[in-house]
Each structure stands twice: as C-alpha cells, then as structure tokens.
Design a protein that fits this description.
CATH class: Mainly Alpha
CATH architecture: Up-down Bundle
Radius of gyration: 17 Å
Number of helices: 3
Strand content: under 5%
Largest sheet: none
Shape: elongated
Structural class: mainly alpha
Number of domains: 1
C-alpha cells in the first residue's frame, strides 16, 4: 500500500502515536478520570485518525488516480492538489 519506504514508515509512526493515544483513553477511564480528560483524549484520537486517513487518501490520489507520476498534466496535478487540500481541511 505505501508507495515508498519513507511513506510506509511515516504511516506506521502515525499508527504508533494513535495506539498511544488510545491507551491514554483507556488509562483515563480505568482510573475514573474526569469527563473532560476522557473527552480530550478521545478528540486527540479522532484527530490522529483523521490525519492518518488524509495521508492514505493523498497517497491513493497521487499514485492511483493521477496518471503515472511525472505523466500527469499540470491541470491534473493542480486538481489533485486542490482535492487533497479540501480533504485535509475537511478532516481537521
């Protein structure tokens, strides 16, 4: 799925951070943390998941929707950039 070694490592790093954030939610619940603490921890998880989703979607657009890298027209590249930008704004 990852198209480069660097991209794969970046996605795995995001997943590890997400795992840590989920663990923080579990710890807060386990020790009867305040509702606000649990809600903030859940919001952090959601943000991390949205960031991961944006990365995967961007990779898909750039490597599977566009023509082969280097063969896309400027217009196609600009449209892909606009789509990625809109998705990132939506997933914030």
């Amino acid at each position: 799925m990852a198209h480069t070694r660097e991209e794969k490592q970046r996605l795995l790093n995001r997943i590890r951070r997400l795992q840590g954030q989920i663990t923080a939610v579990a710890r807060a619940l386990d020790r009867d943390g305040e509702c606000s603490e649990v809600l903030h921890a859940i919001a952090a998880c959601r943000g991390a998941m949205d960031g991961l989703m944006a990365e995967v979607i961007e990779g898909h657009i750039r490597f599977h929707v566009l023509a082969r890298p280097g063969r896309a027209t400027r217009e196609q590249t600009r449209a892909a950039d606009d789509l990625v930008s809109a998705l990132r704004a939506y997933l914030k």
